[in-house]
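Why run this: before we spend reagent on co-expression, it is cheaper to look at a predicted model of the complex and decide which construct boundaries make sense. The entries below are exactly what would go into the expression plan.
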Amino acid sequence: MSQELSTSGYLSEEELKDSPGIPSEARRKKGPVAVIECTEDIPCNPCEASCKVGAISVGEDITNLPHLDEDKCVGCRTCVPACPGQAIFMVDENIGEGKATVTFPYEFMSLPEKGQTVSALDRSGKELGDAVVVGVRKTEKMDQTSLVTIEVPREWSMKARGFRFKK
Amino acid sequence: MRIDEHPILGTFDKGKKVQFTFDGRVMEGFEGEPVAVALRSNGVLVHRYTTRRNEPRGVFCAIGRCTDCIMVVDDVPNVRTCVEPLKEGMVIHTQVGKGPEMSE
Amino acid sequence: MRRCEMVSIGAGPAGLAGAIEAARNGVEVVAFDENERPGGQLFKQIHKFFGSSVHQAGVRGFNIGNSLLDEARKLGVEVSLKSVVLGIYENNVMNVMIRDKIEQVKAERILVATGASENMIPFPGWTLPGVIGAGAAQTMANLHGIRPGKRLLMVGSGNVGVVVAYQMLQAGCEVAAVIDAAPKIGGYGVHAAKVARHGVPFLMSHTMKGAHGKEKVEKATIIQVDEKWKPIPGTEKSFDVDTICIAVGLNPMNKLVRMSGCKTVYVPVLGGLIPAHNPNQETSIPGVYVAGDVSGIEEASTAIIEGRIAGLAIANSLDYLDEGPFIEQRNQQFQNMEGLRSGSHGDARSKAKEYLNAVMKG
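The model came back. C-alpha cells follow.
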C-alpha cells in the first residue's frame, strides 16, 4: 500500500499518477471517463465484470490492479456503483466554461437534490469550495449505491471526491 | 438514537410498541428487541454497579458473552439485557453488586 | 441420546456452507447455534464483498447470508437456535443445551465453526459505559437499528475498524478519529479511503491513554507511541466523544476444539491458538473438522470456502460422495480459495495455512 494511503487513509495525487486505472488528461478533456483509484493488490474484479465494453481488465490473477483502456471507455458509469471499495469515479472535463463534472458513489441517508449547492471535499475530507449537484441517480441494479454528480471548476476534477451538505 | 431509515437496510422490523419500567420510571420500547436497546433508546447507559468498587457498567459486547450489561429483570438478577427480549410490563432495575437474593 | 450424521457447531457462514455441501450429497445435518438468529457475523456486514463472481463479489454480506440460509433450509438442514454446545467428548458425543434443557448428541462427523471473539486492550476508564467492542457497534446499528452513540473514537485500523467506522457514518454517527498503535493502517486502503473522504483523521502510532466521564464516556485521551511502542509524554490528544469502539483484533473461539484434545498451534498471523488441520479441514481428532475464523482469522468469503471443503470431505468420508467427484469439487474450491489468499494481505495467511497443514503431517 502506498505511503500516504497507509498512514493517512487517502491517496495523494502523486501516488495516483502511476496507477493503471487513471485516464490521461487528454482523454479526460474528450468527455466522460472512468477514474479507477485502486492501488492495492486486493483479490477483486467486479469492475472488470461490470464493464460492458471491455475497457477494464484485471485478468486471471484477481489481485492485479485494474487497467483502464481509456479509448474503449465510453463513460457510461456502470462501474462506479459496482466497485465494492467505492474507488471508481466518473470525470467529464468536456462540459465547457472551465468546468468539469465528477460522479461518485454515495451510500448515505439524505440524497442531495439536483440544483443544490454543496461543499466539495477532497480525498482527505478537506473542503475545496462550493459545487452544484447536477445529477442524482439511484436504480435497483445499483443495490443501494446511488450516483451523485457535482459540477466543479475543472482544476478540481482530480481532487473532488466527496461532498458535505452546507449548513 | 434510533435509526429511522438506514441507507442500506431501510427500516427495521420491530414488534409492537410496549411499556416497561426502569427503576420505577415508565419507558417505551419495542416488543422482542433486546432490553438493552430499549434502555439505550431512552438514554440509559448505566446498567449496574460493581460489587467491590461500586463502578458503573453497561453494554460492552452486545451479543451476550461478556455479561457487563446484566440487570435485575422481573426480580431475577444477572439477566443479560443485550440478548433478553423486551416484554410488555417488564420491570427492570439497575443491578447493584450481585443483586437481590433469590427466594427458595 | 440423539444420533445424527453431521453436526455443524455454529450456523455462521462456515457452518452453513459446510452443512449445505454435505446435505447436498445426502448427509443428514443439524446445525447448532447459540444465538437467536443464524448467520453469525454475516448479517451485520452491509458492504459489498470483494473477490470475484465465484465469491459473490459485489453482493452485500447480509444478502449472501440470506441466500446461504435459504439453500440450507431447502436442503433440509435443521438449524437449531439458542443451542449451545457445551462440550465435545469421546466418540464425538456432545452435550448441547437447547434453550433450558441439556441433550446428548452423538454425531458421525462434527464441523466446529464457532468463529472468533474480540480482543481487548485495557486502559484507565475502559469499564465506563460507552466503551464497546466494534462488533457491538455493528450489532446495535445493523441488527437493532440504534446508534451506539453520537460521536465515537475508533481504536484499531484493521478491516474491522475501518469497515465499522464507515458503517457508523452510514448510521448517522460522527467519527472523531481512527487510531492505531501500529505505524500503518492495517485494513484495505479503499476501506480507509471511504472514511477519510469524510474528513475523519487517521492517527497512526497512537494508543488509548484513558477514557473519562462521570458514569459514562465523555472524553477520550490518546497518546503517541514510539517505534518501541512506548508512549511519548507530552503527545496526548483529547476527543469529546460518547463512545469508544475497540477493534484490536479477533481470536478464534477454540475452547471446544481444545477440549476435544486436538492439536493446536500458536500462529500470530491467524489470531492466536489455531487447531491444526489438513487441506480437507480435518483436525487431529478423526471426524472433527474446523472451518472459518476458528481455524484462523480471515474473512467471510474464506470461511464459506473452508466450510464447503469440510462439507465435501465429510460427505466423501461417509461414502455419500465418490472419490472422483469429491476431488473435482474440492479442487474447484481450492482454486477459488487461492485467489483470496493472494496479494500482500493474503500471502501471509496462505503461508500460515500451509504451516497448519504441515503440522498435521507430523
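The interface with chain C takes residues 1-3, 6-9, 11-12, 14, 33-34, 37, 40-41, 45-47, 50, 55-65, 68, 83 of chain B (CB under 8 Å). The first helix of chain B runs from residue 35 to 41. Bring this page to Monday's planning discussion.
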